[in-house]
Amino acid sequence: MLLISGARESFGRAESFFALIQPIPIGGLGLTTGLLDCAALGNCLIRILVRNEAGPDALLDRYAQVRRDAWLGYTNPQSTENTLRMLSNDPEVAERRNKLFERLNTDPKFHIELAEAMNEVLIDNFEDEGS
Question: Domain of life, per the record (predicted)?
Answer without folding.
Answer: Eukaryota
